[in-house]
Recover the amino acids of this structure.
């Protein structure tokens, strides 16, 4: 085995992991296309695009070349008082790509921080427009918006970390997604009752990711947007997971013709190469920060803001979207996921199968030994990592029909084995 593995692991604290009995992480030595190569020579087909980032697969030559070029000239420079071409081009391109007048881009390095910046924008927007009492945020059941303190407070209280950190988090307001007439009335009433104190509603459009891969339709999203506008509450779209084609459109909001006041992007922004995030505001939001008063400025500025390597990767990723048929590939993946995951519906211990774009989720019932499922998937040569109650696939968009069939067959096989033991 690798000589770095055990000595190094003795000093690493793994994410979301009980370290007392943590399963050994698999040592990776290389990635290529949709494959993860392990130190023992085995290759796994990646079913989850490295936490939903690697939309073009690994090591796309265009992204690699762009990052190498950038590394040779300007890897990083601070972003206060200085600016560089990769960031300027990327901001301009994102503004052109996003719907409506979402055209002012604030760069950060992670999704959670992009959401934090959106919250600051929303709260300060109301302060700057003379309504400082509008500070609270509404989020939805099953939401996930990040792991930092402000974003934890916007995650589903049952699935998130609310209880653990109660007392240290801001107290926000959870709502149900208004997916039928009665829930629409309830949502409307909530905004009417609390509107005076609400800064924003935050939503993961169409697909709620880490909170359980729950899906809602475009009408529900459109209703949320319409109700926000009616009650003078800003709408923040967290497209950190759905952005860049995952739901079937470039951005999920497009499907409902919704232009949120603020949108958060990250995960697939650099095609899974380097950490980067963007919080993009509509013109009226940005305009509220223009003033003679210095304290009306947006008070945020990460050290690695707009890292030039990451911006170069993101620009190259957008080039790839322009030159390769990504959305057509997502449409084909959706058809195949629907067809090949459907048989799981009949299995004992399966509650539901849901598919949207290049996202296929099987929700389970009963006791779930997540570690055992994960181990079994790796034995079958696929990288699939169920969490909570869901086994899901979110493959790179470039995956071949054959490799995708291997992934769906593995899901059906592992869940069939589980059904036989129930
Ligand atoms: C992953 C994710 C985040 C958090 O992003 P990090 O880069 O992990 O901080 C926030 N919102 C959504 C919808 C996500 O999927």
């Amino acid at each position: 085995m690798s000589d770095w593995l055990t000595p190094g692991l003795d000093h690493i604290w793994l994410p979301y992991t009980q370290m007392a009995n943590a399963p050994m992480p698999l040592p990776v030595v290389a990635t290529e296309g949709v494959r993860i190569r392990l130190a023992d020579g085995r290759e796994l087909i990646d079913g989850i695009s490295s936490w939903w980032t690697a939309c073009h697969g690994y090591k796309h030559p265009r992204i690699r070349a762009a990052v190498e070029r950038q590394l040779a000239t300007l890897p990083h420079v601070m972003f206060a008082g200085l600016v560089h071409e990769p960031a300027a081009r990327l901001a301009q391109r994102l503004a052109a790509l996003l719907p409506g007048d979402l055209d002012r881009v604030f760069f950060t390095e992670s999704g959670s921080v992009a959401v934090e910046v959106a919250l600051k924008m929303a709260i300060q927007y109301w302060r700057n427009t003379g309504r400082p009492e509008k500070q609270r945020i509404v989020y939805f059941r099953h939401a996930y918006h990040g792991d930092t303190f402000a974003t934890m407070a916007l995650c589903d209280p049952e699935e998130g970390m609310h209880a653990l950190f109660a007392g240290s988090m801001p107290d926000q307001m959870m709502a149900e997604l208004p997916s039928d007439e009665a829930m629409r009335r309830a949502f409307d009433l909530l905004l009417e009752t609390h509107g005076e104190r609400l800064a924003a509603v935050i939503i993961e459009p169409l697909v709620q990711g880490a909170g359980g891969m729950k899906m809602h339709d475009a009408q529900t999203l459109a209703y949320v947007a319409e109700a926000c506008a009616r009650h003078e509450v800003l709408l923040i779209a967290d497209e950190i997971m759905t952005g860049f084609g995952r739901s079937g459109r470039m951005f999920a909001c497009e499907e409902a013709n919704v232009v949120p006041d603020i949108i958060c992007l990250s995960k697939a922004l650099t095609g899974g190469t380097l950490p980067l995030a963007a919080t993009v505001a509509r013109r009226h939001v940005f305009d509220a920060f223009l003033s003679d008063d210095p304290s009306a400025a947006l008070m945020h500025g990460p050290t690695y803001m707009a890292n030039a390597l990451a911006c170069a990767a993101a620009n190259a990723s957008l080039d790839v979207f322009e030159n390769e048929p990504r959305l057509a590939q997502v449409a084909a993946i959706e058809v195949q996921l629907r067809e090949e995951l459907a048989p799981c519906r009949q299995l004992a211990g399966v509650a539901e199968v849901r598919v949207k774009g290049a996202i296929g989720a099987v929700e389970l019932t009963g006791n779930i030994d997540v570690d055992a499922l994960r181990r079994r998937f790796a034995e079958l040569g696929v990288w699939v990592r169920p969490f909570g109650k869901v086994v899901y696939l979110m493959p790179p968009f470039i995956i071949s029909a054959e490799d995708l069939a291997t992934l769906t067959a593995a899901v059906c096989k592992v869940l069939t084995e589980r059904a036989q033991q129930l």
In short: DSSP finds 13 helices and 16 strands in the chain. Residues 3 and 120 are 46 Å apart (CA to CA). The mean pLDDT is 97.
